[in-house]
Structure formats: C-alpha cells, structure tokens
Predict the structure of thioredoxin-dependent peroxiredoxin.
Amino acid sequence: MTLLNDIAAYKEAFKQKAPEEKQKLMAQATKELEESGVAQGLKQGEKIPNFQLPSATGETVSIKDELAKGPVILTFYRGGWCPYCNLELKAYQRELEAIKEAGATLIAISPEQPDASMTTKEKNDLEFIVLSDEDNKVAEQFNLVFKMPDYLIDIYKESGLDVEAHNGNADWELPKPATFVVDQSGSIVFADVDSDYTKRVEPAKVIEIVKNM
C-alpha cells in the first residue's frame, strides 16, 4: 500500500462520479494557479522561519525546540476536508515508526483552527504533531499561500465543503500542499511544492532523504 496508489484509486473514483463540468473547472483552477507563478515555496538550501504554533491538543510547539531533537519533516496540508490531504496524513501515520527510527520528527500544518485540527487528528488516528496555522501566517513565510478563484469557491460550497468554518475566516486562502525536510540548522534539504493538490510525494522517499542526511 502506497500513498500514490491510494491517490490514483481516489482520482479514478472521482473521475467516474463527478460531473464533467466540475472536473473541468477544477482542472482549470489548478492550471491557472500553476501559470500564475505565485506561492512557489521556499527552496532547498534556504532557511525556514522560526515559528511557534498551537497543536491540535493545545500545546504551543516551537520549531526551534523540535529541531534541537533532530531533523524535522514538515508537511503543509489544506485541511481535514481535503480527501487527498487525509490520504497523505494516513500514509505518514503508517510510516511513523520508520520516521522515528530515522531520527526525525514529523509535523503537519494546516490553516484549520485547533478544534478542526483535533477532528482531523482523531479521524485519522494520527500520533504525530498536528499544528494550527490560523490565517496562514507561517505558510505565508514559506511562500505557499494563494487565494482560490471565485468559481472554485462556488464549487466547494456546492459540494458542502465549509472551509470558512474550518479556518475561522472567510478569506478562502489556502497553502499549496508542501513537504520539507529540514536539518537541525534550520536549512531545507528537500522541498516538494506543487500547484496540483492531487500530487504528493511518497513518504518512503522522504524517509530515505532523512536517512541519507
């Protein structure tokens, strides 16, 4: 079982059941985002910002403190309402022991409020750190934030996705899904940022990068 297999199966099921016009508009939004050149993300070799965020369970987590223990895998996800994000989070949970054995800490970050993050954590039985980056303040420092187009917002609302309630605001801004491997100096040794939210990096690849550091 791999993340990419899970994603391929979900995409095929979505293709079979979703209206063609909806699929067309969602693909259009992804293409427009890619062509816009916005939110390219921090690159390999750059330093990450020093940040603190509340966890789903209420503690304040400092990236400086976590890096003092060893390298950190940071994965930014859109929210617990996103099926691709849930597949990714579950895949990381399956690999959590391997991540620990490699000496790394795994941290997932979304713009959801702590209560919504807690729901995501419980729903997926996540045993790693899940942080709430309300208003995308940290994601902005990682150059990941973009505003959804109005026609895509309409599609999400029609689908019953209440992103406003999850995030506690009505700005409809999201981070691009992104994964970073950060060494103890705070430097990025691996970065994966994609405008297509259905594309994710396989956790096994990330673990190999940590092992080879």
